[in-house]
Amino acid sequence: MVGGVAERAHTRAAHDSPWPLKIATYNIHGAVGTDGRFAPERIAAVLTEIGADVIALQEVPLGGDATPDVLAHLARHTGFHAAAGATLSSPARRYGNAVLSRYPVMSQRAIDLSFGSREPRGALDADIDCQGHPIRFIATHLGLSAAERRSQVQRLLAAFDTRDMPVILTGDLNEWFLWGRPLRWLVTHFQRTRAPRTFPSRFPMFALDRIWVRPADRLVRVAVHRTAMARIASDHLPLVAQIDG
Q1: DSSP secondary-structure letter at 120?
Q2: Does a structural domain hold residue 208?
Q3: Which residue range or ranges hold the Endonuclease/exonuclease/phosphatase domain (predicted)?
Q4: What's the CA gap between 43 and 46, in Å, rounded?
């Protein structure tokens, strides 16, 4: 009887916050590996290796007349809730960001980050119910030019500058200048976090993929998921973070 009471008390305590939470961000390169082969099953295998609770994905085929729905395949494989944020959308092809979550996605919004005539970019902004506690989880993929990224980071920070719930910003920022303005602005907002190299996956040289958390003191570990499968499944390695109370 005493053991049962202790177990129930532990369960209640565990639900007093959304933590602990394991998250990841992963640019899946359209599910085309470094060997040039389209293989969504390899992306699914990497997600199984990671074992995260919430995952941000970039460069995700989302279906269409001429395009397979890779997000649907990954959702079936994981059994997770899925949210899609298309940045390219036509009858033939939908493509963009996505979120997979062990916990229910309560609502989602698209943040348009397009810049002039360059490739359309955006962010998927999702509210997730983690054990009865809402978190705001943003998956994004920024542009290739410095001016583009400066504009996009300013718009992102304006869009989710809220203290109503914890905020997690994840994605492929395409920013390799350590002291560039976009990273300085993000550090000011979130505090500095570890940024291991994730690209290219075979011999990583650049820390393009990032995870930012507010409150910042909840982020206890950030590491690259570096396995034989991850090195071939995409041209990026996944970035994984542990958040705790």
Answers
A1: P
A2: yes
A3: 24-236
A4: 5
**Cβ–Cβ < 8 Å for 121, 147:** no
Token digits for 153? 């980071």
Query: Any idea what the CATH number is for the domain that residue 117 is in?
Result: 3.60.10.10
pTM across the whole model? 0.90
Residue-number span of the structural domain to which 66 is assigned: 22-243
Cα 176 off chain centre by = 18
Q: Are strands 21-27 and 54-61 parallel, antiparallel or unpaired?
A: parallel
77, 40 Cβ separation under 8 angstroms:
no
Total domains in the chain come to 1
Surface-to-core class of residue 114, CB atoms within 10 Å of its CB (0-12 exposed, 13-18 middle, 19+ buried): middle
Q: What is the pLDDT of residues 134-181, one digit of tens each?
A: 999 999 999 999 999 999 999 998 887 667 788 999 999 998 776 778
Q: Whats the size of the chain, residue-wise?
A: 245
pLDDT at 160: 76
Sign of the Cα torsion 56, 205, 224, 133 reads negative
Token duo for residue 111: 């943040």
Taking 50 as the pLDDT cut, the residues of the chain under it are 1-14
